[in-house]
Amino acid sequence: MLKKTIYSIIVAGALLLQGCEGFLEETPSGSLPADEAITSVTDLNNAVNGVYTGMIDFDLGLGDFTEPYSYYGGDFIAYADLKGGDLDYTSSNNHISPMARFEHSPESNYSEQFWQMPYTLTGRVNDIFSVIDGIEVEDDEQEQFNDLKGQLYALRALFHFDAARLFAKLPTLADMDAANSGIPLSKEKYHVDFEPTRSTLRETYDFIKEDLNAALGLLSEETNLGHINYWAAKGLLARVHLYLGENNEALAAAQEVIDDSPYSLYAIDEYLNVWGVEGAAELMFEVLTNAAHNSQRNSIGYYTHSGGYGECAFSTQGYELLTADANDIRSQLIEWEEDETDTKGYYTQKYPGRNGSLYQNNPAVIRLSEVYLIAAEASVKGGTASQGKSAEWYINQLRQNRISGYSDVATVTLDDVLTERRKELVAEGHRCWDAWRNGKSIYSPRMNREIDGNYGRAILPIPKRERDISPGLTQNPDY
Amino acid sequence: MKKLLLLSLFLCTSVFFANAQTKQITGTVTSKSDGSPIPGVSVVVSGTSTGTITDVDGNFSLRVPENETLLFSFVGMKTVEVPITESALYNVAMEQDVIGMDEVLVVAYGTSKRSSFTGSAQKVGAEELVGTSTSESIDKMLSGKVSGVRVSSTTGAPGASGEVQIRGVGSINASTTPLYVIDGVPMEIGMYGYTGFSTDLLSTLNPEDVESMTILKDAAAASLYGSRAANGVVLITTKKGKSGKTQFKFKATYGTSETAMKNVYQPMSAEQYVDYVNDALIGAYLFWYEPGLYPDDPGYQDAEVLERALQYVQEDPDEGKWGITSPSANTNWRDVVYKKGNTMDYQFSASGGNDKTTFYTGVGYNKIEGIVIGSDFERYSGRINLDHKATDWLNFSLKQMLSHTSQNGYGDQTDQVQGINHMAPLGMIFSMNPTQPVYNEDGTPNQDAGMGNVKNPLTALIGTGERTDQTYILERYRSLTNASVRMQLIPEFAIRSNFGVDYSDSKTRVWWAPESVDGEAYNGLGDHLTYTTVVKNASFIGDFNKSFGKHNIQVFGGYEAEGLTYRTLQANAENYSTYKLPELANGQALAVDSEVASSNLMSFIGNMNYNFADKYYASASIRSDGSSRLGANNRWGNFWSASAAWRITQEEFMGESSWLNDLKIRASFGTNGTLPVDYFAHSGLYTFSSGYGSESAIYTIQPDNPDLSWEKSDNFNVGLDLRVFDKLTASVEYYHKKTRDLLMLVPLTYLTGFETSWQNLGELTNKGLEFEVHSNNIVTSDFRWTTDFNLTTISSVIDKLPAGKDVLKGDGGMYLLREGEAINTFYLPTYAGVDPDNGMPLFYLDPENSDELTYLRELAKPEIQGKPTPDLIGGMTNTFVWKGLELSFLLTYQMGGSLFDYPGYFFHHDGVRLGSMNLAKDVENNWWKKPGDIVDNPRPVAWTSDRPDRWSSRHVLSTDHIRLKDIYLGYSLPKSVVSKMHMSNLKVFVNGNNIWTLAKEDTIEPEVTLNGYRTVDTPITKNFLFGINVEF
């Protein structure tokens, strides 16, 4: 009997070897859960990089190649210029060119992907925020930690600002307090069954400003290639104030950047050579591209060349505006390209590509010229700030660096500032909003008429798939 | 010393026997049916260990005590009891046991007598498997033999697996394959190979080693396997030795194979092709230059325009590129790509043992040369099964299988990739120009025969060390180890333990030589992929058995743990400096990749069987499973079953019926589950492979869902078994399986940061009737005719989807998931045939609402076009035995299902693919040529952008068919002859499978996988085999 007992113990005991602690906890070899993925400041840095790379990587880096799309890498930049009418497509490749025809419906990929991009990346930000308090921060890492946290706030603000411009009316054209006038706010990590609803436009912009101000309290003032620093966030805040018609605040923020930041305007003799250069003097925030991470055929460089899709050439009005003054160095940043007969046309040379690849162009999210133009616009609209200067001063400063033999002007109008914006910021994703938020219209060569910001298709429809998931999401009028 | 001890023991025993009242008896055991002697019958004095085994001639002699009973038993025969009288001669004739109610079934974690089993399970014995000639993989052998089981193949490539479904389609997104359990240990199956090169771990198993398979169908039978049982369970039991004389068996088989249906994938002849091209170019002129195809075209039925079109074609705008000049050859490239395959199979086994130790050893060699040139499959396998009884209370066994398989093949398309691969053999048949000869005049393969960039199959498919080689080689090692021990601690209580290790190592080597079609872009590509899987399983079970009067109770409970780990390693190289050396070192390194993942399962099981006087039966089971694949909130799940049976014939009020031998009704209810396919579907995950600038970047790619749970199925089963006139057993069953909490990829608001997540939503129901009959139609002393028949009805309907919304899935949204409709319903525009006036195709514009027609497919709305799951499947086997001669054949049938003919879409291209693809033979003389023609295919229009060829009801074809699945003719030499040759059995046989098929559509292979998608693959084969079986 003893023998039987001993054997029994051996037989049964062998099993216990398997049933040890954590037997049912398994993780994959190529990925980790959030709380294990981000445990140090280095991890946090990589996670913040993961938000940035989504801004330029093809399909947000998700490897879903069914409907290619890109955010700052190409599609989002092209959107405002194609709708603005200064750029136009040559070919019938139909990747981003339908925007020039205001061709989008709730079922179309455009509305879905322009929704998907900012919100997916906001989701990434919120996912990091959900574990950020669990990170072990050494004393000497506190500054970096704060900076990274600040970047996350600034990015979340930027994504909401973009989504608001795409899916909601511009603040100056709308009743800010009307129900559902804004966009859904993505404030935290959500459960998979979350159903968002729209906020008011005021809540939307308050949230954007709140996040930017939170960021400014944390961000470093050092230049940080490919990352948002204090100055970039300040410049973005200036832009947001300008959109809101808060001219005093816009001017104050812009002036601070102009006075104190380490950036300087491009000079005439360097203007043709700063494109395609990382860390050029004006670049406050550029998104980094390289051979491995870019938007491939949906990249802005591929859109703006005849050898690519050729979907962002100059329209006649755009070409004429830019080339009106032969002394303006910006007129020389245009080339006739004819790599393919069906894509021939005049193209901007802002995206020449690096390492021989049109895919590798770092899109500028904000650069110093724009800050001058923000200051000028805020000033011309009557904005004042303690260090603020006149609109003429800002415009003259900029033009001196653009036009050979330029003589300062004594007065500028709002139209002068807006024209200057068209010239300086063409193909950088601003045009239609700059006109519309000022109550102006643009001429669309493809629609063959003037279009103002109250036109229904000036904004995108809420994608049908989002409204299927969240019936409480109100659709935009005219869709 | 030991010897001395044994000797004294022996002496004592002898003395003991000498003192008892014993006597010597002799006898012969013969078969009641044919009078032939039966060797190996166990003859035992009831209740003792005294006994012997009959010799080759069926004779035995034994010293026995008086007033006892002799028990004669033999597998497959009814046990005979004979009281020992004064006689010294005991000749016994044994009767075949006809799938009796009392066969022993291997069931979940044990065995059960058929009569007392309350669930739904069916056994397929080795003898039923033997008659099948597809010796590469056991799953294919089940075809047509078991009700409720559907077996199908994606491809006829050697080494590829079949697809087994038990009782319909259990899931939309999770697994639909049953669990395989070998000798009590779950066994890993699956591809573990290179995408685009079909293979399955199942083919590592030598079917010859299998003693029986049991298919567990309902909850009562399968719920003990809990979270993996929802699609049924296949229990495999390997062979065991029997004590007695060592038995040697040798079997050799040789055979040939060809496509099962000769009309499948036949290309158009050269002459017809030239004609077709001509018409397609006329069409092209009328489409592109002077529109005149459609009634509202300006040039419609305008003789002058047509004249100019003819002129255009006469001028030969493309310089004979399309073979418009008279054909110089008429090549059927199908005959080049497909050849006669052949099969070789050699099996040798020895088994035997003594009272304490029995063994089975078997070695096998199997080689199949596929019908596609250059493809083959080879398996070496060995098995040792050892059982030892150490003491009267301690048994243990060790089973070990080792096998090596290798497979040479080609890139195939079983994974439903978009488009047609010009290197897939089937793609090649149609990408070759039929007007071109196979060889040049100097005898070398004609490399200009392809349309577009296609090489001559003679050089592309065969790995001959050429610069155009494109080869796929898989080598696989597998080891299955199973050790078990059982201790009978007291008569009522025993404990047992089982340990299994399942190891497989699969190495795929892909070689695209620098000048091969796909290799050119890389200047040679070598790609090596290794998959290693290790599954460790351990279980510990306690058994309790007790009878109190007429109450019999059997209880067991235990614990089981299983861990699976797979590891991959992939490396590839490009830019080879020579085509002669395919190893990676001879190219430039391209990429490396590796991955490791584990999935673990921990379980507690319990089972109780109760029976009262072999009349009333009740069973209950429970299993609690914890899985690493599930979210923390739902990691553990309980699965249970309850069942009962009533053997009415045991009731006294039934009396002794002259015709009704047995009648049993049974019912069961219980739950099963299915785990997510993805090991980590519940976990929020960050990917680490990205970068930003020069730094690393990580980001979240999957949301966490701690609530993720199993798919659960509620199974109800009611059945009736009966046996009448001592010759016919029948059973009828009704099953109803409702699957809840289906794992669905549910769209999320992008505010979560994700597009979709796996959630438990959706319901579907599978239900049907199963009907089986086994009949001994005629049994005389030298003739026997038996029939086995089965029929199953299947209905797989979706009950609930996320938010009740239709889901379109599959390629181009061709499948509809809709509440109330069958799973994977085809959803495509309806083709209304060809307009006889002008030859243009017609489609219903809005078929659900009107009869209006349109010429343009893109305007036509889709409607439901049938479903892949058949309504009815089944099979019938008839066996005739006359003396040593045996003839049996199995017919299988299937009705009410459809398939989507993806290859047919390419081969009925209506001119769209002119110049890159030939057409199917059924288009010959079956396309529109002149007004009034009533034909199936429209007027061809080269490169038309209207795309009439795009998917429509034209590509949905019926899978109804009857097939002679197996036919077997064997002859066993008379025992008298054989014994002179010192053998116990010598049998020669011929065997065929898929010999004959009667199909509604004879141009497509109707046995298709559960989604009904006919991929661009090699069709299954028919085989003719000759073999010899020797036992001594």
Structural notes for this entry:
- Chain A is mostly helical and 479 residues long.
- Chain A has one domain (37-375, 425-469): Serine Threonine Protein Phosphatase 5, Tetratricopeptide repeat, CATH 1.25.40.390.
- Chain A is built from 17 helices and 9 strands.
- Chain A has helices at 2-16, 34-37, 41-56, 75-84, 109-132, 142-167, 201-216, 230-243, 247-260, 268-271, 300-303, 316-323, 368-380, 391-400, 414-424, 431-437, 464-469; strands at residues 31-32, 87-88, 283-286, 313-314, 334-337, 345-348, 364-367, 441-444, 449-452.
- Chain A has a two-stranded antiparallel sheet with strand order 2-4. Chain A has a two-stranded antiparallel sheet with strand order 3-7.
- In chain A, a hairpin with a 4-residue loop joins strand 8 (441-444) and strand 9.
- The model of chain A has no long low-confidence stretch (mean pLDDT 93).
- Chain B is mainly beta.
- Chain B is 8% helix and 47% strand.
- Chain B is built from 10 helices and 53 strands.
- Chain B has a 22-stranded antiparallel β-barrel.
- Mean pLDDT of chain B is 89; it is low at 1-20.
- Chains A and B meet through helix 1, strand 1, helix 3, helix 5 and helix 17 of A and strand 22, strand 23, strand 24, strand 25 and strand 26 of B.
- Chain A: This is SusD family protein.
- Chain A: Its main location: membrane.
- Chain A: It holds the Pfam family SusD_RagB.
- Chain A: Belongs to the SusD family.
CATH topology category name of the domain at 22-94 in chain B: Immunoglobulin-like
Please state the second-level CATH architecture of chain A: Alpha Horseshoe
Radius of gyration of chain B: 32 Å
Distance between the termini of chain B: 36 Å
Q: How would you sum up the major sheet of chain A? A: 2 strands, antiparallel
Helices and strands of chain B: which structural class? mainly beta
- The whole-angstrom Rg of chain A is 25 Å
What proportion of the residues of chain A is helical, as a percent range?
40-55%
Output the helix-strand order of chain A: HEHHHEHHHHHHEHEHEEEHHHHEEH
Q: Please tell me what the overall shape of chain B is.
A: globular
Q: Which whole number gives the mean pLDDT of chain B? A: 89
Name the strands of the widest sheet of chain A in spatial order. Answer: 2-4
- Helix count of chain A? 17
Determine the oligomeric state from the structure.
Answer: heterodimer
Number of domains of chain A: 1
Task: Give the biggest sheet of chain B.
Answer: 22 strands, antiparallel, barrel
How many beta strands in the DSSP annotation of chain A? 9
Q: Could you name the ranges of chain B where pLDDT drops below 50 across 5 or more consecutive residues?
A: 1-20
Strand content of chain B: over 45%
- Helix content percent band of chain B: under 10%
Low-confidence stretches of chain A: none
